[in-house]
Amino acid sequence: EPEVTIVSGLKDLEVFEGDDVTFRCQVSHENARDVEWKLQDVALQNNEMNEIAVEKGKIHTLTLRKVTEQDIGTITFRVGPHMSTA
């Protein structure tokens, strides 16, 4: 199985408190396993505040709903040994 790499990394985003924000990261292969999203080194789960999805098989997205000041920080996307931050 070929190693999955990051083709297009995360971009820094600024949003207003109360807005939703979506981060996108494109990987080299579909059905990538060992994928993880973090905010300030805390692993994020798919729930009512964080929507984790995959578009077109290769574009992994993280949407943070109704962000607050506590959501300020570094977002990390990891697939295998490869990472991208914003």
Automatic annotation (TrEMBL):
Keyword terms of this UniProt record: Cytoplasm, Disulfide bond, Phosphoprotein
InterPro entries: Ig-like_dom (IPR007110), Ig-like_dom_sf (IPR036179), Ig-like_fold (IPR013783), Ig/MHC_CS (IPR003006), Ig_I-set (IPR013098), Obscurin/Obscurin-like_Reg (IPR052385)
Localization per Swiss-Prot or TrEMBL: Cytoplasm
Ig-like domain residues: 2-86
GO cellular component: cytoplasm
Matching SUPFAM superfamilies: Immunoglobulin (SSF48726)
Name used for this protein in its record: OBSCN protein
Annotated source species: Oreotrochilus melanogaster
Top-level taxonomy: Eukaryota, Metazoa, Chordata, Craniata, Vertebrata
